[in-house]
Design goal:
The protein is an alpha+beta fold and 184 residues long. The protein folds into two domains: 1-40 and 122-184, no CATH class; 43-120, Multidrug-efflux Transporter 1 Regulator Bmrr, Chain A. It has three helices and eleven strands. A hairpin with a 2-residue loop joins β2 (26-31) and β3 (34-39). The longest helix is centred in the N-terminal third of the chain and has 17 residues, at 2-18. It starts with a helix and ends with a strand.
Length: 184
């Protein structure tokens, strides 16, 4: 019975994640286990704070679950982006990608003044994937691997590394994480 429950939860988790829109990008090149990607413009809801990472998620989740002027419900997408604002600063930024069906004018204004809605421009990034639950040791290892390979290939980077998380906490197997850095 226990094995049946584990299998059922795994299938349910995979089914639910297959229903989540994933951010669009084009793979331009693959270098070993690194993808060079081009991301088209996307709309993000973001929050920057010195609070813990869990509070960032709650703030943004509040917005998409109706914490906005029109009580608009907005579907969750993947991945969630997270990065430190700068080397000298203790602030952390988390971003939710808004579903591609929305334009800037169609998204309701957040009730929480800390949330910013913005549209990105086309940019290129280098990304490396890894599995399992994320932690700072894994993130730092893959960030280091990514930076070393980019240096070997004489590819210049812009800014700091970005963590991309694709899965909800209740997904136990087949978890996908990435480290991504903007490139010139």
């Amino acid at each position: 019975m226990k094995n049946f429950l584990v299998i059922a939860l795994t299938f349910l988790s995979n089914y639910l994640m297959s229903q989540v829109e994933q951010q669009n990008y084009n793979t331009l090149q693959t270098i070993k286990n690194i993808e060079i990607r081009e991301y088209p413009p996307a709309i993000y809801a973001s929050v920057t704070t010195e609070d813990s990472n869990n509070s960032l998620f709650g703030i943004l989740a509040g917005y998409i679950f109706g914490g906005n002027e029109n009580k608009q419900k907005i579907a969750m997408t993947a991945p969630v982006h997270m990065f430190e604002s700068s080397e000298d600063d203790n602030s952390v930024t988390m971003k939710f990608v808004m579903p591609s069906e929305y334009s800037m004018d169609e998204l309701s204004k957040p009730n929480d003044k800390r949330i910013q809605i913005s549209k990105s421009v086309t940019k290129k990034y280098a990304a490396i994937s890894y599995n399992g639950y994320n932690n700072s040791q894994k993130f730092n290892k893959y960030k280091s691997d990514l930076v070393k390979e980019l240096q070997k290939e004489n590819i210049n980077t812009v800014g700091s590394a970005i963590y991309l998380g694709y899965d909800p906490p209740y997904k136990f197997w087949g978890r996908k994480n990435e480290v991504m850095i903007e490139i010139k």
